[in-house]
Every structure is written in structure tokens, then in C-alpha cells.
Design brief:
The structure is a homodimer of 126-residue chains.
Chain A: H1 8-11, H2 17-25, H3 28-37, E1 42-43, H4 44-51, H5 55-67, E2 71-76, E3 82-87, H6 89-92, H7 95-121
Antiparallel strand pairs in A: 1-3, 2-3
């Protein structure tokens, strides 16, 4: 064996700030919502249509992002009331990382699809 | 309203290669497993201890990564049999992205923790 291995369980254990932040960013909805909100403040239904996500999942995802200080909800006292979501300055720090994830996904996605198809055609392993 | 919004639902819709790749990478276990496997081939129980994850979740995560061509499982016909997991060359392309995610998480994690604590102390919104 090599020297003592790194202990991710301690450094990145559940409840540590780093782990919580990884879990917030490493989520499909965070990635897709952040990408959509880069265009500027967006209404709930516009987000819902753009992402093709259920209202329930979007509500929960936006609430989690708001709780973490990454997304702000603005209420305009119009009739009917208008509610928009936007990235906070803290949320804006996600944009370069989300771009890296998207670029990787666009570049590597087809190879993953090929690997998956090949795997599914293999005979079951003994 | 601005010009026609981007249609993430079409570009990144469920089942497209880019969306599938985003979902694979944007997962806490992919991030943590990739980071651990950067050190080289690793046995199942070592991974399990380092990540502090249940065997069931680790088994499923490794199988998903293997199916996608990102992780390889090597079986050494010893007694008892030795099984190690390692990143494939395709899986190695995740490393720079995972580093970005980790660096962001280490930098921003404390601010998220503060935002979360402040949010939880707010009175309920009307």
C-alpha cells in the first residue's frame, strides 16, 4: 500500500461547508437553473418552460438556492403580482464552473452514450 | 420581454447526450469518487471508507460510472479475489472539472453556510 490515503470522509464529510457546497452545485437543477439565470431576472413560468421541469421540483430547487444565498426572489407589487428570480453576486460565482461542466458535457456526452450502448449489449458478467 | 429565450428544454432535454453527461457529472458521488480515484486504482472497501458512503450507494454509483465508460473495474484472480476501480481515459477528462467544483466549494462553502443560517432565522415570508 502507498502512504496514508487522503480522508475524504473527514475533509468532505456530510455537513462540512465544502461538502454542502459540492452538493448544492453538483446537482442537475443547479447547473440548468444557473445557466438559464445568466440571461438575467426570469419569471417562474419562463424558467419552468425553458428547463422542462415540474413546478414542484423547480419550486424546491429555487428555494434551496435562495436559502443558500445563490438566488434572489424579487416580488413586484403589480396586479397580478410579478415574481422574478435572479442570481445573487454569490450565485454568479457558479457561472464559470457551470460553463466548465456544460462544455465537458457537450464534448464528452456522445462518447458516454456510446459506452453506455456497448455496456448494455455486453453479456452479464459472471 | 427580450428576444426569444434559449430553449434549454430542447438543447438540454432529458435523454440528450449533453443532458445525460451533465447528470452524470453533476452528482455528489461522481465528484467525490473521481477525486478519490485520481490517486490511482482503489479497492472497493478503501473507497467506501474514504468517502464515508454506504456500500449500496457506492456499488450503484460505480456501476453507473462503469456503464458510462468513465470507471473500469479490474478483477485480479487472487485468493481472495481482488477488485479495483480506476478512472478510464474518458473518466480522466472529469478531473479538471471536478477540481473546479472542489475549488469553488472550498472558497464559497463558508458564505453559503452563513446565508443558510441567516435564511433559517428569517421570519416566514407572507
Amino acid at each position: 500500500m502507498s502512504a496514508a490515503p487522503r480522508r475524504e470522509a473527514e475533509i468532505y464529510g456530510t455537513g462540512t461547508p465544502t461538502r454542502e457546497a459540492i452538493e448544492r452545485l453538483a446537482s442537475r437543477w443547479t447547473v440548468l437553473i444557473t445557466y438559464a439565470l445568466e440571461d438575467g431576472p426570469t419569471r417562474f413560468n419562463d424558467l419552468k418552460n425553458r428547463l422542462g421541469v415540474s413546478g414542484q421540483v423547480l419550486t424546491r430547487s429555487l428555494r434551496d438556492l435562495e436559502r443558500d444565498g445563490l438566488v434572489a426572489r424579487r416580488i413586484y407589487p403589480e396586479v397580478p403580482v410579478r415574481v422574478e428570480y435572479e442570481l445573487t453576486p454569490l450565485g454568479g460565482t457558479m457561472c464559470p464552473v457551470v460553463h466548465e461542466i456544460r462544455q465537458w458535457a457537450e464534448r464528452i456526452g456522445p462518447a458516454i452514450g456510446e459506452a453506455r450502448a456497448a455496456y448494455d449489449q455486453r453479456p452479464p458478467s459472471p
